[in-house]
Amino acid sequence: MSRISAVELTEFTYVAHGFARDAHGALCPHPTGTQTIPAFHLAIHTEDGLRGDYVPAHSGKNPAIVPQVAALAPRLLGKDAFAREGIWHALRWSQRHLGAIGLSAIDVCLWDLAGRALGQPVARLLGGFRDRLPTYASTTHADRFGVLGSKEAFADFAVECQARGFPGFKIHGWGEGDPREEAANLLHVRRAIGDGMALMIDPACTLATFADALHLGLACDEARCFWYEDPFADMGTAIPAHQRLREKLRTPLLLTEHVRTLEAKLPWLTGGATDFLRADPEYDGGITGVMKHAHLAEAFGLDVELHGAGAAQRHCMAAIRNTNFYELSLVAPGRRNPIPDVFGDYRDELDAVGADGCFPVPTGPGLGVTHDLARIRRDAVSVRRWPAGG
Questions:
Q1: For residue 368, is it within any domain?
Q2: Residues in the chain with pLDDT values less than 50
Q3: Cβ(46)–Cβ(4) under 8 Å?
Q4: pLDDT digits (tens, 9 = 90+) for 233-264
Q5: Cα distance between residue 306 and residue 77, in whole Å
Q6: pTM given for the model
């Protein structure tokens, strides 16, 4: 038995050039801006010398995740590192009042440990059957600084992504949630790219009223969108409103990004409030949780779409039949993806898409990602270890 002997949680920062924050705090492009962004690295060690590592690609969830990981870490000591299902349920119960988001990072880290111990990529342990993932370019939020600040700029960027080979493009619009501005942008982009590219839009819960959501939804119908995601300012949690919206539109809805726990997502399927289920290894219980979501959707004959970029997402998608796209988030013209620069050869960048419009599944053991530990230590702002002083 490989018992967990130590856990280390390191918070560090990195700088993203060419970005600012909009009025709501969302990351958006800026001609000359820079942003110092928080990140974290989790390492789990066993008494027989095994190790798992995890650094999330995007940091928007960190304020919720890091404190929960810190609270859960002491509970891991002495546990069998391969008993992921038992650990998953125990930690989920212990944070049942908090959505158990911190469990996610721990679960991913344990999958990395298992894969490295067995010399196999996580995708193979999951029964993965593909090594190339169709990918859509998912933009940052729109800005008012002149980068992604107009429908013309969005159309130019969509055409650029199309030329690179991406089979899909998703718009994150302006924080003001003006349905007319969003609809005009969406339709302009569709005219620019023609019918050969899947087009999606995610207002990110900025539309204030049902009428606003319906206005943009009808534009989605006209633009022949692949999906319409999280429109309402209800934060994507009101089942009756989305049932009513779905009755009036042809465009499929993608919901449940902001609904925590597998059981809470079930009524969205039974009640016909969404067409696609959303799952995220950083929100929804790690790799173990995502695979449960995929099987839930499969039981209903529906698809699950994975949220965000990252190695964990790629390994999960490799083993899920009922899913369509890998999300390359959050991208903007002329900028590198604002993710930590600690991933070695692993890349989530626009120019890394293949001629087939796909991204690869990492083939190394575990997550297949190496981390620049010296860089993480250099820019660490906090290091916590369990047991204390270990």
A1: no
A2: none
A3: yes
A4: 998 999 999 999 999 999 999 999 999 999 99
A5: 31
A6: 0.97
Helix (H) or strand (E) holding 385: strand 380-386
Question: Which pLDDT value is given to residue 355?
Answer: 97
367, part of any domain: no
State residue 64's pLDDT score.
84
The fraction of the chain above a pLDDT of 90, given in percent, is 94
| Residue 387, preceding peptide bond in cis (omega within 30° of 0) | yes
Distance CA(285)–CA(105), nearest Å, equals 8
Rounded Cα distance between 110 and 297, Å, is 25
216 and 332 share one domain: yes
Shared-domain flag, residues 102 and 128:
no
Q: What are phi and psi of 334, to 5 degrees?
A: 75, 15
- The DSSP line for 317-349 is HHT-SS---EEEEEE-TTS--SS-S--TT----
| Cα(293)–Cα(50) distance, integer angstroms | 29
Q: Indicate whether 95 and 142 sit together in one domain.
A: no
pLDDT for 96 equals 86
CB 114 within 8 Å of CB 366: yes
The secondary structure of 43-95, three-state, reads EEEECCCCEEEECCCCCCCHHHHHHHHHHHHHHHCCCECCCHHHHHHHHHHHC
Task: Please tell me whether residues 9 and 143 are part of one structural domain.
Answer: no
C-alpha 45/C-alpha 52 separation (Å) is 7
CB 377, CB 331: distance < 8 Å = no
Question: Is 366 part of any domain?
Answer: no
Instruction: Kindly write down the DSSP assignment for every residue of 97-166, as one continuous string.
Output: TTTT-HHHHHHHHHHHHHHHHHT-BHHHHTT---SEEEEEEEE----SSSSS-SHHHHHHHHHHHHHHT-
DSSP assignment, residue 209? S
User: Which structural domain, as residue segments, surrounds residue 140?
Assistant: 124-360
Tokens of 149: 């600040």
Cβ count within 10 A of residue 50: 18
**Structural domain count, the chain:** 2
Q: What is the pLDDT of residue 390?
A: 62
The CA distance from 217 to 223, in Å, is 10
The H or E element spanning position 7 is strand 4-21
Strand partners, 12: 39, 380
DSSP state of 351: G
